[in-house]
Design brief:
15-stranded mixed sheet, mainly beta, single chain, 15 strands, disordered N terminus, about 240 residues
């Protein structure tokens, strides 16, 4: 029952525009923006993502994300919460493919445990996995990809081993998407200015593994650019507003 109460709360938040919530004393600031998914060889835009962020009095952030891949007829809606340090708290995600609704899932972090309850076309599945204190969650919208590095505090060029709970394992019976816990190599490469259609940003440049480069606005972990070489794709922040 608790999981479905959380879902109802998430869906209520989705329907509330930032402008209305900004007048609430519990909300200290907001932001919103858009990403474009770009084929680096052709310059073709192959997907879009719209997002908004609320920061409450505790410093926790709640992201509401609408994501679509045009060429795949694939759509997701995600609510993602992190605490003041950007450590994951919970996520709700629902997905559609070319056959219609595909699956929904609630992923909740309590101390060092992640519990998932997922529902797909074939039924429901649950999962509980242990995670370390320092970890990130990967529900896969671009908006959340700026949050993987919250605990990286190493010198420029030094690689550390981190941990990710990656929402990528399809349950064979239900069709819902469960997670796997795996190590990730994280490298801080320094401060760089990056210009996109949304403007020029002072960012922290990180690398994950050998093939993914991330440029991140340091204040809220907002991704400004991601370059993923295996697919020849670049993801750019193409619109951005912040109320302070």
């Amino acid at each position: 029952m608790k999981a479905w109460i959380q879902i109802a709360t998430f869906l209520m938040l989705v329907g509330m525009p930032n402008a209305a919530l900004a007048d609430n004393a519990n909300i200290v600031r907001t932001a919103q923006g858009e990403y474009s998914y770009i084929n680096q060889d052709t310059g073709e835009i192959i997907g879009h993502e719209d997002w908004s962020m609320l920061v409450d009095r505790s410093g926790a952030r709640t992201f509401t994300i609408a994501q679509r891949w045009d060429e795949r007829d694939y759509v997701t809606r995600t609510i993602f919460r992190v605490d003041a340090n950007l450590r994951p708290i919970e996520s709700f995600q629902t997905r559609w493919d070319d056959k219609g609704w595909m699956s929904s899932g609630v992923y909740t972090v309590v101390e060092n445990t992640v519990t998932a309850v997922v529902t797909g076309r074939g039924g429901r599945a649950t999962q509980t996995l242990e995670v370390p204190e320092k970890f990130s969650m990967v529900p896969h919208p671009l908006t959340t990809d700026g949050l993987h590095f919250w605990y990286v505090d190493s010198p420029i060029g030094e690689t550390i081993e981190g941990t990710a709970y990656n929402v990528k394992k399809r349950d064979e019976l239900s069709g819902g998407i469960l997670g796997v816990v795996h190590p990730v190599e994280l490298t801080y490469l320094g401060v760089e200015n990056v210009t996109t259609a949304a403007g020029t940003f002072e960012t922290k440049h990180f690398k994950m593994g050998d093939d993914s480069d991330f440029w991140i606005d340091a204040r809220d972990g907002i991704l400004v650019r991601l370059s993923y070489s295996p697919e020849g794709t670049r993801y750019d922040l193409t619109a951005f507003e912040r109320d302070d």
